[in-house]
Design brief:
Helix content is 36%, strand content 15%. The chain has helices at 44-47, 55-74, 88-93, 105-115, 126-131, 154-168, 189-203, 222-228, 255-258, 286-294, 315-323, 338-341, 348-357, 359-366, 380-385, 445-458, 471-480, 494-509, 519-526, 553-560, 564-568, 577-602, and strands at 143-148, 181-186, 235-239, 245-252, 265-271, 297-307, 331-336, 402-407, 415-423, 426-435, 463-466, 486-489, 513-514, 528-531, 538-541. The strands form 4 sheets. The chain has a 7-stranded mixed sheet with strand order 3-4-2-5-6-1-7, sandwiched between helices.
């Protein structure tokens, strides 16, 4: 028998256009298969989140997609010819889908975050890195907040996410007769209509039209669909690849919360979430709606909150302040300006016009920044303008005067510590550090005091300002523990506190404060509130969603208070004794200021703090 005909050498003919499969080893253990079901689950995309999107991983993703499409074609009771899109990005940009062929890198990155795949080459784009707050996204994302300017495609992205989830999430654990829902909730009818229009427009495309179910021809599902409410305005039923119907429903106003209960969810969109109030403030509230949905979202589903900013003090603004650039768990906050999302609309001319006509609209609709409430003492715009790009910590400079202050805490709040100096007519925050207790535990004051003493010694300091909290106890504890650190208890009266906080605000407004590039410092300062007017002004520290109480603000203002009176008060008249003393002080510090400028120029080569 010729070798070519032997059993060992005989090869099966390959079908035309058949792709050679990748070896199981290349799947790195993320491919689950069996002899009866050679195709991976559709949720395999989310299992690949922890793998960097390198060349080999692109091959893996392509192989998983090929097998998923093959599984769709072979699925029994499948009422449509198959889902023709390989990714959310493909669905969003393809002319056969939503047709956004000129999608920006930020929009494409959001598509990939919705799907749960790596960002790949998009991480090299400056706008994408800025949108992420210069922090890497978590390996697994169950909740995504999209804060962006208006006219940036947020509603269209929400509709695309709904169609994708209706085709990609496994329904194996649902019982017969259960129809899962993808709910899109909005605070207003106008927003709901806009999102519904995007959804209808896409489903009328030739590639997606076969997915839509005619309730009268649903193959035995007529009674269940009718009971669910097929004729409700804003509701569409689609065929899932398993042959079961799924629902996408768009609702607004008071009915928004009711749409997420008593039903399994493929996902939930809280459209314009920044305008939703807390549980104590209204019927359409973000807190209760989110809480009701979390336990009902199927594996692979996503809670999506796209919104343009509005006023601060809402649940979403608190989350953004606490977590943008600092992802926690499986929740991610992204934030992009109007020009970053849609430069075709937000031209330089249009941006300039809206900036002149309506500064508030410019702040929210273009810059994607929340409006400061009237009682905010330190506007976010001033905080951002006073934040240096780098470095995170400014080292000791010989000859400079330094002041350190701390705000002690052991249980829920952070124990914060700062070191501040003066450079000519401005206050420079050299270092800001905090200690946080682990869940269910409390900080050990002896340990924290030793670490503070070690840090203070780097700036030739052997003392630190502290407030009245357990003052005597901390002083005795430091002495008993042998800590080489003197605690100076600075007792604040209401008048002194108001004067120093107001003076710090003046320096911020004039750009005479240099803050470290730490988002937590910015968030704590932004949380300082001014209540009342005239002689009855009080300073309060707002509590944010993460439990902080503006912990960095008290030590920053206390340490800067060393120079606030002389920097804020009017300069003495020329020729007076006070003026001559001030001239002598300036002469003494002139050389130090030159050294400081040299130091800043040398720091230009230091990497960003988020890369450290």
């Amino acid at each position: 028998m010729p070798d070519s005909c032997s059993r060992n050498n005989k090869k099966k003919p390959r079908r035309k256009n058949q792709t050679k499969p990748v070896s199981p080893r290349a799947l790195r253990g993320n491919y689950r298969s069996s002899a009866a079901d050679p195709a991976p689950r559709w949720t395999s995309y989310r299992e690949l989140r922890k793998i960097p999107l390198e060349l080999e991983d692109r091959i893996v993703l392509a192989e998983l997609e090929r097998r998923r499409l093959e599984a769709q074609e072979k699925a029994t009771n499948n009422a449509h010819p198959g889902f023709p899109f390989t990714s959310v990005e493909d669905l969003f940009t393809s002319p056969r889908g939503f047709g956004v062929e000129t999608a920006t890198p930020c929009q494409r990155a959001i598509c990939r975050l919705i799907q749960g795949v790596g960002l790949g080459e998009l991480l090299e784009v400056d706008d994408v890195r800025a949108m992420l707050g210069h922090a890497a996204p978590p390996a697994k994302i169950d909740e995504l907040l999209i804060i962006a300017g208006i006219r940036s495609g947020k509603s269209m992205l929400a509709a695309a996410a709904g169609i994708w989830c209706s085709q990609s999430i496994s329904l194996d654990n649902l019982r017969e007769g259960e129809i899962p829902r993808y709910a899109i909730c909005s605070v207003s009818r106008d927003n709901a209509i806009q999102t519904h229009a995007h959804l209808l427009g896409a489903l009328r495309q030739e590639a997606l039209a076969p997915l839509v179910i005619d309730p009268k021809q649903s193959g035995g599902w007529e009674e269940v669909i009718d009971e669910t409410g097929a004729q409700t305005i804003g509701s569409k039923f689609l065929w899932h690849p398993s042959g079961r119907p799924v629902e996408i429903r768009v609702v607004a106003g008071k009915r928004a919360g009711a749409s997420v209960v008593s039903r399994w969810l493929l996902g939930l969109v809280l459209d314009e979430a920044a305008r939703m109030v807390g549980r104590d403030a209204g019927v359409v509230n973000y807190t209760d709606t989110r809480r009701a949905a979390l336990g009902r979202i199927l594996d692979g589903g996503l809670l999506l909150s796209p919104s343009s900013p509005w006023e601060s003090g809402t649940p979403v603004s608190d989350i953004v302040a606490a977590e943008w650039g600092r992802p926690k768990g499986t929740r991610l906050v992204v934030r992009a300006t109007g020009p970053q999302m849609n430069p075709a609309w937000w031209t330089e001319k249009r941006v300039a016009e809206i900036k002149v006509k309506d500064p508030c609209a410019y702040q929210t609709d273009v810059l994607a920044e929340f409006l400061d409430p009237e009682e905010a003492l330190f506007p976010m715009s001033s905080i951002a303008a006073c934040t240096r790009p780098r470095p995170l910590v400014v080292p000791y400079r010989r000859g400079a005067e330094y002041v350190a202050a701390m705000d002690p805490a052991t249980r829920t709040n952070a124990w914060t510590f700062v070191v501040v100096t003066r450079a000519q007519q401005r206050v420079v925050v050299c270092l800001a550090q905090q200690w946080l207790p682990k869940p269910g535990q409390k900080l050990r004051p002896r340990v924290v005091l030793r670490e503070i003493a070690e840090i203070a010694s780097r700036y030739s300091l052997s003392w630190v300002y502290s407030d009245q909290w357990s003052a005597d106890t901390l002083v005795d504890l430091a002495a008993e523990s042998g800590v080489d650190l003197q605690l100076v208890i600075d007792e604040w009266t209401a008048a002194k506190k108001t004067k120093l906080y107001s003076g710090f605000g003046v320096l911020l407004a004039e750009g005479r404060v240099e803050l470290p590039p730490d988002p937590i410092v910015a968030s704590d300062l932004f949380g300082v509130r001014r209540r009342g007017a005239g002689q009855s002004v009080t300073i309060e520290l707002a509590k944010t969603a993460d439990g902080r109480h503006g912990d960095y603000a008290p030590p920053l203002v206390r340490a800067a208070g060393r120079w606030i009176p002389e920097l804020v008060e009017p300069a003495p008249k020329a020729g007076t004794q006070e003026a001559m003393a001030e001239d002598a002080r300036k002469a003494e510090t002139a050389e130090l200021d030159i050294e400081w400028q040299d130091h800043e120029e040398q720091e230009q080569g230091v990497s960003h703090w988020w890369d450290r």
